[in-house]
Amino acid sequence: MNPIFANLPTTVFEVMSSLARETGAINLGQGFPDDPGPEDVRRKAADEALNGYNQYPSMMGIPDLRNAIATHYKHWQGLDLDATTEVMVTSGATEALAGAILGIVEPGDEVVLFEPMYDAYLPLVRLAGGIPRFVTLQPPHFRLTEEALAKAFSPKTKAVLFNNPLNPTATIFSAEDLALLAEYCRRHDAIVISDEVWEHVVFDGRRHQPILGLDGMRERAVKIGSAGKIFSLTGWKVGFVCAAPHILKVLAKSHQFLTFTTPPNLQAAVAYGLGKDDSYFEGMRQNFARSRDRFVAGLTTLGFDVIPSQGTYFVNIDIAALGETDDVAFCRRLVMEHGVAAIPVSAFYAEGAVKNVVRFCFAKKDSTLDAGLERLAGAMRKAA
């Protein structure tokens, strides 16, 4: 068997979700909402499945969706994209990431990775023959520094894998951070593969800034988005890839031999959804922010040290103040003894792991969050 995959442990999300199922615990670990997603978008997908076209669509995505993606990003992020040559549809953002990495990275190329990071990044880089160079981000701010970038970049740097907003930390990189990263990419002639799936799930009046839109980055950036995150339909697996024509042409060939295409009814529904009024997107953010605030208030009242959440479905706590030094052991006790599943953030590090941060998902109904807080109160009483 290929050791890149054969030697991987079972993903921490599956481990914690399995323990939650076995013990009847409240699952605040894996990142999916309780809500079924917008009904009109789901009905559009159902109608298209019954009455629309169900044979192979274009490998690049149906024209309606590619046009909708370009229009949507023009409206929300000021990007001027050619839907025909700079936009592609994939079967989810993870497929988009795989296609981008396999299309860009050659054996021996160095790839800069920022940890904590989505767990698919490192195996895919290694599958492509890339050599990972890690930048370890530290809580509570998880900021980029010139010193760290200087150590990670080299003449062999081919690509950078970047996630903004950042899962699992729930932080958004500042304009200064983005400018610093762009400077290093230009200086080293590196392509940044920018995982921006949480671009619409941002709070407190923030607006997402795509790195593709920065000076000098249009020719060296790949922007990846996710309909699943935008519409809280995580099982749909419809991804977006935006890049300059000379890059997208290669990524399309990689995509051709991964999934080739994506269900046309889902594409039609997503095209419809992207054209929804601004009030939908603003309302979605407000609803998630309200859930965040409810859960954070409960955690704070219980005495947890909460790290601010600027976006995504997640909020983190620092367990060092509780005298805890092992987030994996803490999460295992939490699910086995107190009936709440969470995620140890050390699972998102490849080296230099931070072991005092634990992630919760707040994209749940009030009743689920309140029940989780009630059980966490028991954990705090025992710790005291």
Automatic annotation (TrEMBL):
Keywords: Aminotransferase, Pyridoxal phosphate, Transferase. InterPro entries: Aminotransferase_I/II_large (IPR004839), Kynurenine-oxoglutarate_AT (IPR051326), PyrdxlP-dep_Trfase (IPR015424), PyrdxlP-dep_Trfase_major (IPR015421), PyrdxlP-dep_Trfase_small (IPR015422). Its cofactor is pyridoxal 5'-phosphate. Residues 25-376 form the Aminotransferase class I/classII large domain. One of its GO terms (molecular function) is transaminase activity. It comes from the Bacteria. Pfam families: Aminotran_1_2. The keyword Transmembrane does not apply. This is 8-amino-7-oxononanoate synthase. It comes from Microvirga puerhi.
